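Write out this protein's structure.
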Amino acid sequence: MMKRIIALTLVLAMFLCGCGSKTNASKAPETTAAAVPETTAPAAEATAEPTTEPTTVPTEPEIFRNPLNGEILDAPFNGRIFANTVSNMEENIPHVGVTQADILIETFVNRNNIIRCLALFTDIESVDAIGSTRSTRPIFNQLAQHYDLILSHAGGSSQALADAKNRGIENFNIDSWVVASSGASYRDEEHKRSYENTLYGIGSGIKAYAESQGMPMTLERDYGLTFTEDGTPADGEDAGKISLTFAYGGAKKQTVMTYDAEAGKYVFNQYGKVMQDLLTEETEMFRNVIIMNADITTNGIYFVADFNAGGTGYFACGGKIIPIIWACDGDKEPFCFFTADGEPLDLGVGNTYIAICAPESSVIWEA
């Protein structure tokens, strides 16, 4: 078992002034036909000028990728990313619908050890149920601002909702009668005696309600991620098991990711059990694992992060782990990820788990 705490201050400083524009669609450079010089016959010759057909070097086809998971698409993605708040307290698991998320973000949201997840979807219509859905928090509002998310939640405190409004977040409460009756959510009567919270979002209903409120359904922007078919870091250390202990003040919570070589993904473990969907029993597994050490403070009882300050962290894929640097250009810009030597980080094609935690959180891995 090894524990590494890696200081990357000098390299990180290079990126805090801006991480630059990135694109998730790779495009081969266009190649033009070489110009063919005209030839003129000697004056004494009355022959016609020879003609030469121009030659064109074929170009490689343009490749379009899903901006959150890297899968190849037929056309550029210009839809909206939807995000739904998900409880991650022991009394509210198993999750529902998280296996269909492109990205799952886990973080403390306020004091008293309250930890939640934010599930991001490029195709929310395909998700029958998401949850259990809980109220929004300022740190989720921050993430929504960085990625232009449409955020669905189960309400929130006056402080959290005012914060969302001030940030210009497109969001709505799927627990309100108006929204729920439109088909955006339901209460699970079958499991209400077993779990504290049983509100679940309905993907198609969430999108339909957003459309009914005039929220734009198209958007062209950068999401900061690049992908390769095999994202295994070549110089990574063996990491068949990664143990992350979220820590802030006296608050602590452990997440364990164990690598399944056959699936090529990390299995999500917490509270001493493997995470499986409540309805489908599908195991929650992730191609990529990203741990972001962020400057987290509190605003009243709620946690907030200075994402613009950037930070260090870790990236795991294919059973290997490396230290990384991450940066952000501003409140409305995505996160950019780099290797320790400053090269852009390529993720493996597939879904991603992201942990946002304070620097005092510990990361331990073993082969």
